[in-house]
Design a protein that fits this description.
single chain, alpha+beta, 2 domains, two-stranded parallel ribbon, two-stranded antiparallel sheet, 3 helices, 12% strand
């Protein structure tokens, strides 16, 4: 299952500008990118200040690390980036 949290925006500042996905909904565009996945649309209408992904990550027992914006953290985590394939789980002294 894939949770689609997207909104079809081409610009967010100084104003919101919606993208035009043609005859498809934004979720249909996402579904086309992952054939066979079950898509559920959720969380896309929650005001960012109220939706704190850090709490969700921590509820799974992990620690959230803010690596910056997409340009920075994307490069750190993408294939051949310094964090690609790294298991950053700390099991302590167990």
């Amino acid at each position: 299952m894939l949770i689609d949290v997207t909104n079809p925006l081409v610009e967010t500042s100084p104003k919101l500008v919606l993208a035009d996905p043609g005859d498809m909904s934004a979720s249909e565009v996402v579904a086309a990118l992952v054939p066979g996945a079950r898509i559920v649309k959720a969380f896309n209408s929650i005001v960012t200040a109220r939706f704190i992904i850090k709490q969700l990550i921590e509820s799974f027992g992990f620690t959230a690390i803010d690596l910056g914006g997409l340009a920075t953290d994307g490069r750190l985590q993408q294939a051949r980036g310094p964090l690609a394939g790294r298991d950053l789980v700390d099991f302590g002294s167990h």
